[in-house]
Amino acid sequence: MAQDNKIALLIDCDNVSHKSIEGVIDELSKYGKVNIRHAYGNWKSDNMKGWEEKLHPHAIKPIQQFAYTTGKNATDAAMIIDAMDLLYTQKIDAFALMTSDSDFTPLVMRILSNGITVYGFGEKKTPSPFVKACSQFIYTENLEAVEDEGVKVLEKGNSKKSRNELRMDTGLVKLLRTAVEQSAGEDGWSHLGRVGQYISNNTSFSPVNYGYKKLGDLIRVCDLFEIQMKNDNSVMYIRDVKK
User: In this structure, which topology does domain 163-240 adopt according to CATH?
Assistant: First the structure.
């Protein structure tokens, strides 16, 4: 079962904010148990203060990396070595790399070649090659915790994209219509689960980046498809309204 999947979360603290860690772990809990949680950086640096406060509450193990040479990133090397060790010594069902650094793109490709899923989390400055290499990629700004009357709450998505905003995103529209067409049965209707599977097999798309928790929610709002609910409204089928 997916809930029993073992996930290794590796965090590049030099290149990603601590503010979204709750959201990242919450998102990963949908796919399995985050059994391994390692955070890499120079913990003697003042820049790590925000991350230090997150270690104990979230059972994250800090991995110390000194900046031996100016301009050289020891954190990158440590994460890559650790990932390869885990790949060969542990039974890991998925890796989650929390970083905004494209230098990890070859690592993602190497892990994927072993048939293992890679979830990517990074800031909106993350270079496209790393984003596209991941099985699924979510921008951490969409997962940051915010203060609401003194209480921290997760704000999943800075704002939900409106119907018009979704329909004006030509790349998104093309992706959805292609996925629905390729997943359609002989009657022209597509099971939402198969649509989602097609998308995940071909892109790093996540509805979270558009402000929605589930693909079905985004489908309803974009209003591009006819919707038919079956099995006591538990299963969604969709068909392109152009058909």
Answer: Nucleotidyltransferase; domain 5 (3.30.420)
